[in-house]
Amino acid sequence: MQRLLGWTGRKDCNAVEIAAVAHRTDGSKHAVKLTNFSDEGCRMEGAEPFRIGEELRIAVPGIGQLKAQVRWALPGNAGAQFVTDVDAF
Fold first, then answer.
1. Which of 10, 27, 41, 75 could form a disulfide with 81 if both were Cys (CB 3.0 to 4.6 A apart)?
2. How many angstroms separate the CA atoms of 63 and 52, rounded?
3. Residue 86 to residue 45: CA distance in whole angstroms
4. Of 35, 34, 42, nearest to 69 (Cα)?
5. Cα Rg, the chain, nearest whole Å
6. What is the DSSP string of the chain?
7. Which residues on neighbouring strands pair with residue 3, listed in sequence order?
8. For residue 72, is it within any domain?
């Protein structure tokens, strides 16, 4: 397969089923299920829609709260990239 110029691959994600909570900047919280997880980001499923570019904190059991930004969103699921303090919003 030939890749397009400028295409950047992603690290492999681990298939998981983790109940988590997405905390929005407006203070609201929404239950989500993480279905893919890596050190760079995750895929979330949930009833509430997310917006591309939206900033979140995702509370993951056993890990804590992770700062993230929504990179893609479709009805019922979204992908988020974790951000560091250097990238922080």
1. 41
2. 24
3. 27
4. 42
5. 13
6. -PPPTT----PPPEEEEEEEEEEETTS-EEEEEEEEE-SSEEEEE-SS---TT-EEEEEETTTEEEEEEEEEEETTEEEEEE--TTT--
7. none
8. yes
Residue 35 belongs to domain with CATH number: 2.40.10.220
Residue 1 lies in a domain: no
- pLDDT of 1 reads 44
Q: What is the mean pLDDT of each run of 10 residues along the chain (89 residues)?
A: 51 81 97 94 95 96 95 95 72
Domain count, the chain: 1
Tokens of 80: 């988020």
Report the 3 state secondary structure along 31-52. EEEEEEECCCEEEEECCCCCCC
Burial of 68 (0-12, 13-18, 19+ CB in 10 A): buried
Here the contacts of 83-89 (C-beta below 8 Å, separation 24 or greater) are 89/55
